[in-house]
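Running co-folding for adenosine monophosphate.
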Amino acid sequence: MQTIFDWTFDNSYARLPDTLFSRVTPSPISNPRLVIRSTDCAQLLEISDSTDESLAAYFSGEALLDGMQPLAQKYTGHQFGAYNPELGDGRGLLLGEIVTRNKQRWDLHLKGAGLTPYSRMGDGRAVLRSSIREFLASEALFHLHIPTTRALCVISSDEPVYRETQETAATLLRVAQTHLRFGHFEYLFHSNKKDALRSLIDYTIEHHYPECAKQSDPVQSLFRAVVHRTATMIAHWQAVGFAHGVMNTDNFSIVGDTFDFGPYAFMDSFNPALICNHSDWQGRYAFNKQPQIGLWNLNCLAMTFSDYLSREQLISALQEYDDVFHQHYMTLLGKKIGIAQAQEKDAELIGNLLSLMAKTGADYSRTFRFLADLDVEKRTSRARDEFNDVDAFDQWCETYIDRMSDEDISADARVALMNQSNPKFILRNYLAQQAIADAEQGDYAEVRRLHTLLCHPFDEQPEFGHYADLPPDWGRHMEISCSS
Ligand code: AMP
Ligand code: MG
């Protein structure tokens, strides 16, 4: 069976100071069955012809491959603004790191693998619902060109687990360049493990930011790079209308990947103040707070670099955050309205459209997608139907058409740019919910269909047309449980 995973393991994290992990053997889930796999993630991992059974065996905790050295990582973090020293992988294990023939290194992390020393009051399990949600969201973000962890597969079981109701346990094989979180650095800094922190910083540069090693001050260059990647990731979230929901520092990846998917939401009707996590009663992680929370989290990380960088160095790197965010956000939003290189003056045009959308509650993705078919002569477009106040939209359109006349871009090129920038299909909460309801009955067809269509979010895919419709009444403003 082992030949399909012709992998070379090189478990570099396991060579870090041992305060950073505990070795734990996975506790298998019973009667494992493959729910879904990502064929392009399998390709990335150079897996050939995996059978459902082999995936179910190796990624349910039942069997280990030669070279795997499963471990639970120790980290801490700020949760909803408060420091929690007790965190760590409470239900996930790093099985090992593979190096592909292309010399790419991938962490294989099994989420839902059972109890660890960091499980606290938890049961070490992940439910089928949240495993499917993570699988679909991470694969969807990847195909939207947004930095994210990946997922190879979800395995279901018949093992009961208890959340608000009885559910069943599942596992997810998460694939990422690294599972290092801001929280790893916070752990070592706040517990005064200085040598280990220095080793971790050097390790991060060597493995994940090799370009920084060549700079005159590699640590400063590392910190700046993390600031930039974080700002860029959040600019992508804001542009596509993605609310993460739990932006705790233990859910922030040091390489700027979208990481740990809980009660996230892809925006339906545009509500800048959307709070998708119903336990977030103060709205700390509301959609429009995400950019500032990214910076708040980077401040927590900055503290952990304070033995190596001066106050001025840290502040100057943090001060770059706003500009990097703004520049990326403007570029992305510019493309969404067909402007290849947005300029500062476009901020008002874009801001006015967003205000109108917010006022009307226009559907975020459909409005941008439909704007591509604006007929400049007839002043018609499907986007117009998304607005209650069509006069206000018509007025906005006049300024837009005026602005477009300055752009050196043909009508066809404008449409092409917009259609590559505005997904037709997003993972609306209600779509995920329907797929999950079927999967909970043992029928995985809908999860697989949804995954297939989300692999090509910018394509027309007429056979899936109704997946781009507005959500039905029952599917609007769904409250997603953060228990997972
Ligand atoms: P999350 O909200 O998924 O980011 O998890 C926050 C922390 O709680 C992490 O340290 C998790 O490993 C831990 N955790 C979450 N759910 C469980 C569970 N069912 N059993 C054990 N630990 C858990
Ligand atoms: Mg987490």
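Result summary
The mean pLDDT is 96.
The CA atoms of residues 379 and 397 lie 8 Å apart.
Job closed.
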